[in-house]
Amino acid sequence: MNSLSKGLFLDKCHWKQMEDDVKAKAPEEACGIILGEDYHSQMVIPITNILHSPTQFRMEPKEQLEAFLLAEEKNLEILAIYHSHPQGIDKPSLTDLDELTYPEIIYLIWYSIDSEWCCRGYLMNHQRQAIEMLVIISENK
Fold this sequence. Notes:
Helices cover 23% and strands 38% of the residues. The protein is an alpha/beta fold. The protein has a single domain (8-138), classed as Cytidine Deaminase, domain 2. Strand 6 (116-124) and strand 7 (130-133) form a beta hairpin. It is globular, with a radius of gyration of 14 Å.
């Protein structure tokens, strides 16, 4: 992947799709994958959280594999993984840092403030560091 210094550009409809997913799955953590190119979203793929937990997520393996295969078929990059903290914080939790699987992509964390859903992006590493990344909502590419 290229430098992430420009941030992640999410199409407005993809932002709405993720927001709808996290709202619908609360109080459980929602999760999914964002596919795209050149840091611009092309597709959001919600994935089942097999833990059905309000504090942790684990993607259903078959659905996750299908998303990866779709990315390969469409020649798209896996730009980000999103998940929600329905009762939690606006940054990666210790569990998020401990269970980090893909340190080279952005993790979008959805959280609720006064019943309104918000989202922040982070690039995390195995040294338990999280750097906030710019997330830009755009009308189109």
